[in-house]
Design goal:
Elements: E1 4-13, E2 16-26, E3 31-35, H1 42-50, E4 57-62, E5 65-69, E6 74-75, E7 83-86, H2 98-108, H3 113-126, H4 142-154, E8 160-164, H5 172-189, E9 192-197, H6 200-206, E10 209-214, E11 217-222, H7 224-229, H8 234-239, E12 244-248, E13 251-255, E14 260-263, E15 272-282, E16 286-293, E17 296-303, E18 313-318, E19 322-323
Parallel strand pairs: 3-9, 3-10, 7-8, 8-9
Antiparallel strand pairs: 1-2, 1-4, 4-5, 5-6, 10-11, 12-13, 13-19, 14-18, 15-16, 15-18, 16-17
Length: about 325
């Protein structure tokens, strides 16, 4: 039996339908990312799971507990769903020290003082901030404040942890570090995570499953490798990573830049087109080359020792593609 079940959930704002009958199922301990561009419905889905938005219809169930059902007239408030949530803004309280920030949810629920101490110190150890419990938020970096928010969400031992673009306010170096830390914490605790992001690298690096959303509908659900190498629709092919999408022999095909082969001589292969070099960008271990052809603009990853000149005529062929 699936740990999370979302059945035919619809959400309307006035006359506009923003979630169009989405059904999803996930297992316990999975790291799930909702990935899509702005306005695709990913944050709305997360807020409906959390209880901050009420669906128009459908059913949401976690670990056998019905959180929402229009047919059964059930709409549990957020506080009764046993879910942890970390927002884009950390919402760390400046007037409380580290210990009190993390312990706050337990104090609100009047948990025994000794249990508060035990669980709070345990979570500070998990997020690597043990020994600093008397310090105040101003003493912590952005990445450390994000860990405080994580600890506060996890101290309640939630059934699912919900993360709404939690790394978007961090610089690139901190984002890379926090991606690893969040994934390590998730694995260590074996907690189910639903993670909302518009950043492909975050979803590809961290997830067990990725849900690609587009216009309130699911385009594809799969693991990162399948999403990247076997996109099911042109939208997924164009949204995740770089891709050359063009018409060829009456079909739409997608060829990743690393699968586009460049040669000065006409290749002995059936699938080939002629193109003109328009730009090359040095990337250290390779060049990223741009071309113009009858099929439109093309991109290829070429070896660093392959010298191409702007305006040069070349042949492009491919050893792997997706056909739609």
């Amino acid at each position: 039996m699936s740990y999370i079940k979302i059945d035919n959930v619809v959400k309307k704002f006035g006359e506009k339908t923003v979630i169009k009958g989405i059904s999803l199922e996930f297992e316990k301990g999975e790291f799930i990312s909702f990935l899509g561009s702005s306005g695709c419905g990913k944050t709305t889905m997360l807020r409906m799971i959390a209880g901050f938005e009420e669906p128009t219809s459908g059913r949401i169930e976690i670990d056998g507990k019905v959180l929402y059902s229009d047919k059964d007239n059930i709409m549990l408030p957020p506080g009764k769903r046993n879910l942890g949530m970390v927002f884009q803004s950390y919402a760390v309280w400046p007037h409380m020290n580290l210990f009190d920030n993390v312990a706050y949810p337990l104090k609100i629920q009047k948990v025994d003082k000794a249990e508060i101490e035990r669980r709070t110190m345990e979570m500070l150890d998990v997020v690597g901030l043990a020994g600093r419990e008397k310090e105040y938020p101003w003493a912590f970096s952005g990445g450390q404040q994000q860990r405080i928010a994580l600890a506060r969400a996890l101290v309640m031992q939630p059934s699912v942890l919900l993360l709404d673009e939690p790394l978007s306010n961090l610089d690139a170096h901190l984002r890379d570090k926090m991606k690893e830390e969040i994934r390590n914490i998730q694995k260590r605790m074996n907690i189910t995570v639903i993670y909302v992001t518009h950043d492909q690298s975050e979803a590809l690096q961290m997830s067990d499953k990725i849900v690609i959303l587009n216009g309130g509908e699911v385009e594809q659900i799969a693991g990162p490798t399948e999403i990247y190498h076997e996109p099911k629709t042109p939208f997924v092919a164009g949204f995740v990573g770089k891709n050359n999408i063009f018409e060829y022999q009456g079909k739409t095909i997608a060829v990743r830049p690393e699968n586009l082969l460049v040669s000065e001589e006409k290749p002995d292969t059936f699938d080939r087109i002629q193109a003109t070099v328009s730009q090359t960008i040095f990337q250290g271990t390779h060049y990223f080359a741009h071309f113009e052809s009858e099929s439109g603009h093309m991109m290829a990853q070429v070896p660093a020792d392959m010298i191409l000149s702007d305006g040069q005529k070349v042949w492009l062929s491919w050893n792997k593609c997706n056909t739609f």
